[in-house]
Design a protein that fits this description.
Elements lengths: L7 H13 L2 H8 L3 H15 L4 E4 L2 E4 L1 H24 L7 E6 L1 H8 L3 H7 L4 E6 L3 H7 L3 E6 L1 H4 L4 E2 L5 E5 L12 E4 L6 H7 L9 E3 L2 H9 L4 E5 H9 L4 E8 L4 E6 L4 H16 L1
Parallel strand pairs: 3-4, 3-5, 8-9, 8-10
Antiparallel strand pairs: 1-2, 5-12, 6-12, 7-10, 7-11
């Protein structure tokens, strides 16, 4: 049986880090945190059973394996980009395209979408799943909801609130926070260790790791543990009673969700204004 290929995201992180010889510079380019880039490259090295970079005090250097892999990965990513551009057509004039992660679409937008349709029955919406900068460029969306820092998403993007990180669990879990399995989303700069330090809880070690806040919320809703997630994503689940606070405290993040709107598209402005109103309504 053929082995499955590693995720494209791992190769993207490797290619950017190999060009810059810096995890930090690679993270800035592809819109991730430095720790997320480092983790993905480590996963790729584990999969291949070989180190791709020599970690030095003042930077990185490609190993023989890394130098061998670099041109092949670069060429493959260029082919994927070319194929995407060849198939992508211009957006339909009467169709509003909203690009966001599946987490945002599922936990923030979907609970209120019937209300938007009641107010704007003339607007048709196409949702495009997007995480990486290349995803957003390919989507050619009228509305973009991105995750990252203000520097990463661009100065024209506006922050969505609430942005603090909160601890959520199923109401069926009746135990103190410290006694429950902790779920952490990798690729973010603030996690359970910072939450524990901020609230005098000592060292909090996650038991489950996921790659998105949305997946963390799904696991928490199913009773698998406590998710440390953006309050923006958890607000509706908390309001409905699907999830409850496992701890009264919260902690400020270093990344958040931002919205950007294409100029000259009235439906995009209407969607952004509607979303902001829904979020402010609590």
């Amino acid at each position: 049986m053929a082995r499955s290929l590693p995720p494209v995201a791992w190769f993207r992180a490797f290619e950017a880090a190999a060009r810059h010889l810096s995890f930090t510079a690679a993270a800035e380019e592809i819109g991730m945190t430095q720790s997320a880039v480092s983790q993905q490259i480590k996963a790729l090295e584990t999969r291949f059973g070989a180190e791709l970079f020599a970690r030095k005090p003042r930077g990185l250097a490609l190993t023989d394996a890394g130098r061998k892999l670099m041109p092949q990965v670069g060429a493959a990513l260029e082919m994927l980009q070319a194929a995407t551009l060849a198939l992508d057509g211009p957006p339909e004039a009467e169709l509003l395209t909203v690009a966001s992660s599946v987490s945002v679409a599922s936990w923030v937008i979907a609970p209120h979408l019937p209300d938007f349709h009641r107010r704007h029955p003339e607007v048709r919406i196409r949702f495009a799943s997007a995480i990486w900068p290349e995803d957003f460029r390919s989507a050619m969306a009228d509305v973009e909801i991105r995750f990252g820092s203000q520097r990463q998403v661009g100065q024209s993007a506006l922050p969505l609130e609430p942005s603090e990180l909160v601890a959520l669990k199923s109401p069926q879990l009746d135990a103190p926070l410290e006694a429950l399995p902790l779920i952490e989303s990798v690729g973010t700069s603030v996690g359970w260790d910072a939450f524990g330090a901020a609230h005098g809880l000592g060292s909090l070690r996650p038991r489950l790791y996921v790659d998105s806040y949305g997946m963390a919320l799904h696991l928490a809703a199913g009773g698998s543990g406590v998710a440390l997630v953006s309050a923006l994503l958890g607000r509706d689940a908390e309001a409905s009673g699907q999830l409850v606070r496992a701890h009264a405290g919260s902690i400020a993040p270093r990344e958040g969700y931002y919205i950007a709107v294409r100029e000259g598209v009235p439906a995009a402005r209407a969607f952004a204004a509607w979303l902001e109103e829904r979020l402010m309504a609590g």
